[in-house]
Amino acid sequence: MSYSISRVNWQQAAPLLKNIREKVFICERRIPKKVEFDQHDASAFHMLVCDDTSQEPIATGRISPNGEISRIAVVSSHRAKNIDKVVLHGLFAIAQELSLKEVFILCPLEKVDYFIMHQFQPIGSVYMVAGRPKQRMACSIKTALEHASQAKYYLTH
Asked: Which domain of life is it from (predicted)?
């Protein structure tokens, strides 16, 4: 399988980004639509991954100007292909362009081990958001990029 990953803005790519996030967060995880789509989408930097064969959008993620990584979503038919790592690495590259020293994520409790594998460390205690337990985790950009340098892919703008 081949795919294309691009940095996109919300104003131009919203229908494609919404398509992915609706499938993953609203339909699968039952996140309310009013919670999933928020005022931060317009100011965030977004990654979009499309399947080269079908041209379908298959993954996305966003990073805010203050370094919050969120809304990483991969459609179920493509989850076994490590596309989430490519999205995460693309978000790290944006953080570097923004001259951020650190990024953070408010991750679901069941994903803490996944983000620890990507050099994130838990910060503070577990708390609830939309009825789900979350953990704030942070990672220095330098550490994230060193860890990500083993990946073999390229980004387009």
From this structure: Bacteria
